[in-house]
User: What shape does this take?
Amino acid sequence: MSDSAETIAARPSSTATRAGNGQFRRSLVGGPVTALPAVVIGLAILAFAPAYYTHLALAAFVNLIIVVGLQVFMGNSNIANLGHSAFVGIGAYGVAVLSTPLAMKKLSIPNAPFGLAFVELNPFIAAVLALLVVAVLAAISGKIISRLSGVAATIVSLALLIIVHSVFLNWTDLFKGNQAFFGIPKVINLPAMLVASVAVIVIARLFKDSRWGLQLRASAQSPQAAAAFGIDAKRLRLMAWVLSALICGLAGVLFAYFAGTISPKLFYFQQIFITLAMLILGGMATVTGAVTGVIVLSIGLEFIRSIESGVTIAGIQLPQLLGLSGVALGVVIVLCMAFRPGGISGRLELDEQLSRLFRRNVR
Amino acid sequence: MDYALQQLLNALAFGAEYSLVALGLAVVFSIMGLVNFAHGEIIGVSAYSVFLAAALGLTSPIVAVLLAVAAAALAAVTFERVAFRPVRYAPTTTGLLTAFGVSIVVQNLFMLLISPKPQSVSILNGLNQMWFFGPFAVSSLQVMELVVSGLTILALVLFLNRSTLGLAIRAASRDFATVRLMGIRANRVIATAFAISGALAGIAAVFILARRGSVSPDLGFGLVLKAFVACVIGGFGSLAGAAAGGMLLGFIEVGLLVALPQEYGGFKDALTYVIIVALLVYRPEGLLGQRVELGDKEI
Assistant: This one.
């Protein structure tokens, strides 16, 4: 923090934009550093782990992208968002409806409206169109949410989740309702997922460090002071909301393309609980926090799930403990909020922490 | 005519239930700014304690009703003591997320300790009968819901207006610091608010049990989401707004149920929320909420 102020002060007066460029370059470098732990784990799994773990890792990377998307809105605006899974669902169902092969569609959604039963697009074009739908819906909902004060905005984000879920469930001609939507082309593998994760993390870092991100964080800390500086908080909240929705939508697209089968309940409260707990545990002020939370909780939850389904310890068969992972998630959230509201990573990004560490060592 | 009256009674009964739960949320929010997502689990604790008591041999419905209310009040006070006190001075978002966490923990504890599946509770079924008034047949439960909710709200208003503690609660919702300067303990005010909120939830739990005849881990969650929405339309933190918002929500739901053709019945929830969000476009501060400009001081 303080050193950037020093550099600005030390330079001649005409360098305000140069300082801005320096910040841009720094966050462009900082983004990949932030992503590094996730990439290392991903590559390690790619190189050594059996197929089962690859599947788990793919799911964990989808969560990573969702949590980073969540951080873009929550971390910068400091408004709790409990509806992001709506956009994950829209992304996933968007590509499911657009790119599933015609032969499959004849089985699953023969009566789809708007002639969608006879559409089979290239997966990439389908993804672009699905994200376009996400963007439009996010712009509309964001228009409403950015006008509301904190608590009301949170409740409306929940309402959005329920509306979208209920449409998935009840518009059976298009979304197959409660049944699984299958036959989506499986075109995503782990390397592609890694690339997408890094890209998303860099984007989130660039937004956070950009002029807009800084202004939005300022207005979250003190609305009055920010307004006095002429910051239009509503517009910035809308921007963050749409960007966050797009990232979540992308996560949905990638999920559909690796799993091949989706159903509405995947994009409902269970997912909200898990991703929210990850973000809170890691620390929602930073992108590093999002990455940390996903890594820690993904590993922790996998461990708990293995206990949950009933294990044998020293010859004694433990019973099934359904709900154990839920209790753990909730306890993580409550304890974090009480004792370390900033999460594990606190206020500094990984690259900032590292550069501090090295500077201290030099001294 | 008969049909219209029946639907009117339906709307009033639903509205009364939403109002009760929404009031419980608003009482707590107005004084400490906590968005209590765990309110639904207070209803859950209440319902599960009736279930356990019945399983242990309780047969008297009156005792069950008292137990439900007492258990809910106790649960609310306990949640405050254990989970919400550490985050009392934290920003709203922190409190909201804590409450969300508590809600997840308690729901999953029901799942873990009792069962993920719905369990049948028949002890309160006697409340749900058909009463005949001349040509009209009405459900006793709906009449009771309406009467009891009305009386409860009346009692709450009397308490808030006539007793010292009630006065302290109302004052705390405006300016907590001054209330403490007057020599009133913050902990007592907050515990009372939680106990009231819990008791309201307990009454709602009795009606839910009587209507459904079973308990399940997510028993109160959906209801509380609706109550939140009622609070938001009424203007968050306003008690009158919560009651009015709850009633309005009841009328919107029953109205949609009547108006929608059978095959679109599934869209009822979605449309309800769409209508409410649309309302918020016109009045972002809610129906009875006051528009507060940045930097305004309350006089």
About this structure: Residues 216 and 233 of chain A are 6 Å apart (CA to CA). The two ends of chain A are 18 Å apart (CA to CA).
